[in-house]
Amino acid sequence: MASALHEEVRAGLRDLGFDEVRFAALPDADVGASLGAWLDAGHHADMAWMERTRDKRADPTQVLPGARSIILLGVNYSLPDAPPVAERPRWARYALHADYHDTIRAGLVEAGRVLERLAGVGPDDYRYYVDTGPVLERGWAARSGLGFTGKNAMLISRTHGNWLFLASILTRLALPADPPIRRRPPPADPAAPGAHAGLLCGKCTRCLEACPTQAFPSPGVVDSRRCVSYHTIENKGIIPRELRPGIGDRVYGCDTCLEVCPWNRFAQEGRRLLLSVRHDLRDLSLAELLALTPERFAVVFRGTAVKRLKLSGLLRNACIVAGNAGDRAHLPALQLLAQHPLPVVRAHAVWAVFRLGGGATLASARAVEADPLVLAEYAAEESRAVAG
Ligand code: B12
Fold first, then answer.
1. What digits encode the pLDDT tens for the residues 69-112?
2. What's the pLDDT score for residue 82?
3. What is the pLDDT of residue 182?
4. Closest-lying ligand 1 atom to the alpha carbon of residue 92
5. Can you tell me which atom of ligand 1 is nearest the CA of 136?
6. Residue with CA at minimum distance from ligand 1 atom 5
């Protein structure tokens, strides 16, 4: 492909709103080399879909046979004009936009047309993904020089910091590979988890130390079983009791290992052409969240990523935040939630009520409780009270 053409493709995709457009060549066994060890260590927790798609994730040519290139796309989602609202539950910054899976996907549909128009590829010669596809987006992005993998496992960009959504297009088109940020000698064991992490981190370990639940067994390696983001978003069941205090006021996701990264200092504001900001979520009080009805949940979270968590997951998280907040004004709402139809909500409400010193008020709810998970919460709290 003539070099002018690939630059035309790059410019065409940038015009659609992608802040970064980089190319990497396929195949490249290095990128997926350490996935197996990460999965074998159980770091994916209950995300069984990662295990099921292990081979495809390690090798994009199994996703699109004959693929010769992967186009890595970055969308800056920083919100410099919007500091967190005090005394309100905290949301992962990415959730303060209309669901990026939808908005970026719309951009990817257009990106496909750009490829067809400029490079003459057919609709079967490419496949695009944002987040949910079996593609190691961060490794490929690092490979293409879009950024480097930090000790926090994030793809960090020198111009956008940590605040970058990634998307990818696998294509049978041969595109000239962009160079990685800096070539370094291959890691001693490229199959070790985190083998590629920390290229431009120097001695900094702020992210590893700031993690509220100690989810990094080593630099660049997240153990999802301890990660607040995993538990508040992906885990649909009971959140381990020992991790709940570390969740603090985070009602959805966690940005702590991103926020403390010094590279954010250099982050420029994005164009947000593929995003639609939902700052209003940050104004929601904890009391409003604890009182959410199915109807109100559907209205407030329509079009956001939070919708995927469902009302039960959000109420569960809100109970934990309330238990951590220590404000007894939330007791009446929590007592009601201790009688919620779903055991997952009841269990966390029971925990929170006990944390606020109101355990005795649940006597009648406890008397009719039959679910083993909820009974386990009562038992744990009662024995804690006896021990304490
Ligand atoms: C599963 C998943 C999670 C899990 C597991 C996280 C993890 N660390 O793997 C959980 C639920 C915990 C999670 C949390 C978050 N996630 Co997430 N997640 C994913 C998902 C779907 C797969 C990631 C994966 O494959 N993990 C397995 C590990 C082993 O793979 P890996 O870290 O990518 O590294 C592999 C390769 O990339 C390679 N590699 C890494 N660097 C390099 C460099 C070179 C040069 C080479 C050769 C190879 C290489 O080594 C590894 C194995 O081979 C991706 C989307 C996707 N399809 O990629 C989003 C994704 C990684 N998540 C994202 C985000 C935003 C988050 C959160 C910030 C959300 C939040 N605020 O709560 C947190 C951050 C937690 C963290 N520090 O990682 C973004 C990250 C964007 C970025 N700039 O990095 C992604 C890319 C989604 C997107 N499309 O934008 N996530």
1. 999 999 999 976 566 667 799 999 999 999 999 999 999 999 99
2. 60
3. 84
4. 71
5. 58
6. 224
Query: How far is the C-alpha of 232 from the C-alpha of 251, rounded, in Å?
Result: 7
Tokens 């639609």 found at: 276
Of 266-280, 340-354, 361-375, minimum mean pLDDT range: 266-280
Q: Output the CA 138–ligand 1 centroid distance in Å.
A: 6
The dihedral region occupied by 320, where left means phi > 0, alpha psi between -120 and 50, and beta the remainder, is alpha
- The active-site residue out of 28, 30, 46, 131 is 131
On whether the CB atoms of residues 172 and 13 are closer than 8 A, the answer is no
What integer pLDDT is reported at residue 72 of this predicted model? 98
CA of 99 to the centre of ligand 1 (A): 18
Ligand 1 first shell, C-beta below 6 A = 30-35, 38, 47, 92, 94, 130-131, 133, 135-139, 142-143, 149, 152-155, 164-166, 180, 196, 222, 224, 227, 229-230, 234, 253-255, 257-258
Residue 2 is predicted with a pLDDT of: 46
- Catalytic site residue 131? yes
For ligand 1, atom 41, which residue shows the shortest CA distance? 139
